[in-house]
Structure formats: C-alpha cells, structure tokens
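Input sequence (479 aa), recorded before submission:
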Amino acid sequence: MKGDHTTGGKPHIQLVIRRALEGTPKIELTAKFPCNGNFKVQLPVWRPGRYELGNFGRYIYGVQGLNVSGIWEKLHKADLHQWQVPADVNTIRWTFFADLFNAGSTGAAEDILYINPVNCFLYHPNHSDWGYSIDLVDVPNDWPVATGLPRVNGMLYARDVQQAMDSPILAAASLTHTEYESNGIPFHIWVYGKDQPDVKSFKRDHLAFTESQIAHFGTFPAEHYHFMYVLPEREVRHGVEHEDTTVIALGPSAKSQTQAGYDELIGIASHELYHAWNVKRIRPAEWMPYDFSRACPSRMGYVAEGVTTYMGDLFLFESGVVDLKGWCRLMERLLDRHVNNPGRLNSSVADSGYDTWLDGYEPGVPGRKGSIYVEGAVLAFLCDVRIMQLTGSEASLQTAMRMLWEQFGVERIGLIESDYWSVLNEVAGATDAMEDLRLNYADGTKESWDDLVAAMDWQGLALTKTIKDGRWHVSIAHS
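Predicted structure, token format:
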C-alpha cells in the first residue's frame, strides 16, 4: 500500500507477527528487509519512558534467516543486540518472550496480544527512515485493535523507525472502547480486563483533565490520542507515554473497582497525557531523536519526569477531578518519599537522572541517589511557587512550560538545561530569579524542608512532619 497514511511509498520492512502460545507465551516475528548483501539488524537496547538499559536481547530465543535455498539458518550476533545477516538473506524471523504485562512490555495470551515494538522489533541501523507494514496474522478479524498507527485493510503502517518504536499495539477479544472530543481532537479510551472502572465517571474525568491541560498549552500536539488500559490478573502498576498514545497497566483488575485503584488510574492518565507535550515534544537534546542502539544519559530527568509528576497531579486539581484535600494527599505521598530518601542529600537530582542508566529505577546502593520523579516534582513545586510569588500569580511554571512548548516543542528542537532555566527566569522576570533553586536543588543536595514549609505557607497550607517507627510522615493542612 502507498500513500502518506501508510509507508509513503518508501522502502519498508514487511513484518508479520503471530502468537506462539504452547508452553511459555511467545510471539514469532518474521520480517522481510528491502535490501540485499551483507547487513546487520539491530534490536533496541532501551525504550523511551524508561531511562535505563532494557537489554531486550535477553527476551529473544533465537534469530534465523531464510537463505536462497529456502532453508532457515541461524544468524550470529555482531554484538549483544545486533545480528549479522549474510548476503543471500533478507527475510529474518525471531521468537520473543511474551509473558509480561506491564505497561512497557510485550504480552500474549489466548484473548490478547499486546506489543511494545521497541522491545521486540528489529531494524536496519543505517536506515531509520524505513517504515514497517505490520500484519497481525493470527489476530481474528473481529478483535478490536487499539494503536496510534494507521490501519488499512487490516494492515498497520509506520512511516519510519521512530514512529514504529513509539506506537504500541493492543488487540484483544474483549476490548472495551469509548471516546470523547476536546478542541476538535478525538481521544480514545480502550480497556482490557475482567473488572473495569465505571465508564461514565472514567470518561468524565478524562475529559476534565484533558481540557484543562490543552487550555494551558493552547494546542494539542497530535491528531488523535489513545489511552490503552491493560488490567491483568497479576500485580502491576505502571504507565508509559508514547507519541500519541499511552499504555497504563494496573492489576489485579479488581483494583479498578476500588476508589484507591480508580484514583491510581486517573492519576497515571493525567501524568501520561502531560507527557504528550513534555518529553514527547519538549525533549532533552540527548533524546532528539531517540537513538535506540545505545545508552543516552541525560541530566534532565527532573524536567522530563519531575515536572510531569508535579503537573499531572496539579491538573487533577485544576480540572476539578480532585479537590484541595485530594491534592494535599497526593503531595503528602510525594513528600513522604522525599523526606525518607537520604539519597537526595548525596546525589543531586540532575546527577541521579544521569545515573538511572547505571542502575535503573531500583533504589540501588542505600542512600546513594534520589528519584527524578520525586525530587524533580519537589523542585517543580518550588519553581512554581517562586514564579507565582515574583509575578503576583500572573505567571507560573505552567506559563514557562507553554513557552517551552512554543519555542522548542512545536519545532522539535532539543532542549538543554540552560534553555530550560533561561525560560523559567524570563517568566519569573529576572535573569537570576531561579538561580538558587537550580544550584541548591537541581545541581545541589541542600536540605529542602524549610523552603518547602515556606512555599506551602505562602499558599495557605501548613506543612509538618512527625517521625514514627523510624520513618517520617508528612502532613499538609489549611493554615
């Protein structure tokens, strides 16, 4: 098929995917590459939204190539995530482990196929411009398919490697669907799972935080958006952002019937939608474009995840999804994690973000590092209050984020730290307005408690902490 909605008439990889469910669940992928002669194929080593090495090669059982004699022969590795393809081979097949159902994984069962392409798609390292045609060959025609990719006559199409790797695919026998519109953009909610949240409330709350976020940014960056919920019968809590979709996993599915579980889903959803601007478009230069073949460390995790964590919760309040008491509970939970992690006093949030590529998102060595989500959100809160104080509440951190969207995100210009802080200073009204916050809490490891208390007090809230059983407990109340 040709045309802008498919592969644009360019050379592309013809990919066929089928489930292999005997024994351990797997998927089998067969790809025909539009080239001849010796070449290499590459498997991504990390995935956007998780700033650590994923080492996805550990999930591959083997890779074979079809030679001119019609015989499948074993392909040998050129390195840990790359295979050498002989001159007489251009069709390759590989088998991938598919029994993970977190939001960033690949999973298959009798009633579902969930694919995160960046886990399992091979690509030509010298041809990132090549797209894919994707045939889900064993998915029944009556199964709904959720994806941001265009679908024509049952086939899915990606225009290039960047789009393919950032476009999850969810197909299931029982996949519920509802949609709403905001600012002329269609938003889809897809849910897989035995137990599901109330459709009316779910749709209402999605619409509320969506309209609030778009109002503050002015425009939405995609032509459509898909919330894809996977609610399996196993323990999981996870969300991953993509270009025009998000996948959110929470299990067991019965959690969605509880108020706490419902609040978790809505909270993750608001966070992930904010990523449509921040990270997917307002993106650190190190990730512009994504290089899937190597580690890509950046000091700006506090912007990518910290600002998003803070803003995702704030927009729940701004949109009326939660009241002030509900926002305070969210901040209490965040600050509990903040004050109980001594690693924030050892490694700055910028350095901790860089080092997620060393030891991932695990706590690692006790007291060594902080969390880009938690410490980044704390810093975002302090920046927000500072801007409001200096401008008489005429501007805020969101004012700066909109400016970053317009100056960097729209044109997809990679962001560096000095750009970020320059815009915040401009919005605050002075070239050094935020300098102490940057030095103390982005690049430094100063204790933040006094500044947090003062910031909360300025907003009419009283922040206190007490210690019980060796752990701090934070409380926020009207002062």
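Checked by second reader. Confidence is low (pLDDT under 50) at residues 1-5.
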